[in-house]
Specification:
Length: 231
């Protein structure tokens, strides 16, 4: 069953920004709600996109496995994001797997229905183009970091981005609001679990961060920003 505020939520997303209320209500009525349990795949790398997914609650990570079998977490998506949008819009296989980090709710539309909505409401197509451009720019930035930045700086960038995106205040710092393992950080930074564990232990000794089982908090944000050269 659709939640009563789905239309209002759609109006606050990038994809449906600028549409009138009556259009948002019509689009919401066409959606099918979906619950993805923690650890469940929303879609898998290599599959053909049959639906467009919009995250309304929870967190979803986008992970790619290279030809050599090396895992890489590309990004973490929050409510309002559209996992797999580039593949759905371009009608190509998913380049990555989307996995729910916590129990998450999505709205889905058949791909053909979204194409019809774009023809009927050009504003959706314009918004979609902006989203695709943003994802491309983000991937170029990540590629530059992997090619040019030392690993300690990449790890610091991961923690700064996650606390900016999903930080919650804790005593003496700010903690990532969803479960985050050392392996997750390694996949986001393009390095090994051993390197992340060694780096975080040193940072904990210096009072920059703290952590536990699947949790990480930044204790000294200025020092972490200094690592990436942003003082």
């Amino acid at each position: 069953m659709l939640q009563q505020d789905d239309a209002g939520f759609l109006g606050r997303t990038q994809l449906f920004d600028g549409l009138p209320r009556e259009t948002l209500e019509a689009v919401a009525a066409l959606a099918t709600p979906r619950l993805a349990r923690a650890g469940q795949a929303v879609f898998r790398q290599g599959a053909e996109p049959a639906h467009l997914h919009l995250l309304t609650a929870g967190w979803v990570k986008i992970g790619h496995v290279s030809g050599s079998g090396a895992p890489l977490t590309i990004r973490v998506m929050q409510p309002g994001d559209v996992p797999g949008c580039v593949a759905a819009f371009r009608r190509v296989p998913y380049p990555a797997t989307a996995t729910a980090i916590v129990d998450s709710r999505l709205l889905t539309w058949p791909r053909e229905m979204i194409a019809e909505l774009m023809e009927r409401h050009p504003r959706i197509a314009t918004n979609a183009l902006g989203m695709v451009g943003g994802r491309t720019e983000e991937m170029l930035q990540r590629s530059r970091e992997f090619a040019t930045e030392p690993v300690e700086r990449r790890i610091a960038w991961v923690l700064l981005r996650l606390t900016a995106q999903a930080g919650q205040p804790v005593e003496g710092g700010i903690e990532v609001a969803f479960p985050l393992s050392r392996q997750d950080i390694a996949e986001m930074a393009g390095t090994t679990l051993h390197t992340v564990s060694r780096t975080l232990r040193e940072w904990e000794r210096r009072g920059l961060v703290s952590g536990g089982r699947q949790r990480v908090a930044i204790r000294d944000a200025a020092a972490v920003r200094a690592i990436v050269g942003d003082e």
